[in-house]
C-alpha cells in the first residue's frame, strides 16, 4: 500500500470542515423521509459493529454525535447529520450482515439501502467500512457489486487498523486493494483508520473536503 501524500492545505481544509459543528437531523425509515437533495451527501456503509458510528464521531471530534453500541444492528435507520454553514450531509446507514435480526427487518433495511443508493443524485461517495482484522467479507463484496451496478462512487475504509499486527495488516491491505482493483466504481485508494488511535482521521477529512470543494452543489439555505 502506497501511502497517499496530502498537502498541508488539504489537511487544513479537512480540519476546518470538521471543526464546524455537525448536528443530527433525523433518522429515516422510508425514502420519503429523506431531506431534499440540496447539498452533497456522503454515506457510511459497513457490516454491523464495523465502527461506523465511532468513525463519524472521530471525524466530527466528538463522542456524542452518532450513537455507538456494542450491540450489532442498533442503527436501523438512515441517520442524517448536517454540517453548520457547509453544504455537506453525512448519512449513517444501517449495518449489514447481522443474521440475528428478524428477517422482515433485515429485508426492510435492504430495500431502504438499495433505494437510497440508487436514487440520490447528490450522493457523491459511499465509504464502505471494512474491519482491518478480517478484510472484505462476502456481504461487503455484495454491497460493492451493488454500488458498481448503480455507478455510485465508493471507497474502502479499513477500520480498527490498530488491532492486527503489522504483517497481518499488510496482508489485509493487499487483499483489499486486489478486491477493488478492477471494480468500475471503486476509488483505487484504500484508507486506513483507527477511531481509537486517531489514525487516518485527518486524511479522511481531507478526502471529504476535496469532494466538497469539487462538488458544485447547491448551498444550503
Automatic annotation (TrEMBL):
Give the GO terms filed under biological process for this record: division septum assembly
Q: Which cofactor does it need?
A: Mg(2+)
Tell me which UniProt keywords the record has, alphabetically: Cell cycle, Cell division, GTP-binding, Magnesium, Metal-binding, Nucleotide-binding, Septation
- State any single GO MF term: metal ion binding
Task: Look up keyword Nucleotide-binding and say if it applies.
Answer: yes
Give the Pfam families listed for this entry.
Answer: MMR_HSR1
User: Is the keyword Metal-binding in the record?
Assistant: yes
InterPro entries recorded for this chain?
A: G_ENGB_dom (IPR030393), GTP-bd (IPR006073), GTP-bd_ribosome_bio_YsxC (IPR019987), P-loop_NTPase (IPR027417)
Residue ranges of every copy of the EngB-type G domain listed in the record: 38-214
One GO term describing the cellular component: cytosol
Q: Which family does it belong to?
A: Belongs to the TRAFAC class TrmE-Era-EngA-EngB-Septin-like GTPase superfamily. EngB GTPase family.
Q: What exactly does this protein do? A: Necessary for normal cell division and for the maintenance of normal septation.
**Designated name of the protein:** Probable GTP-binding protein EngB
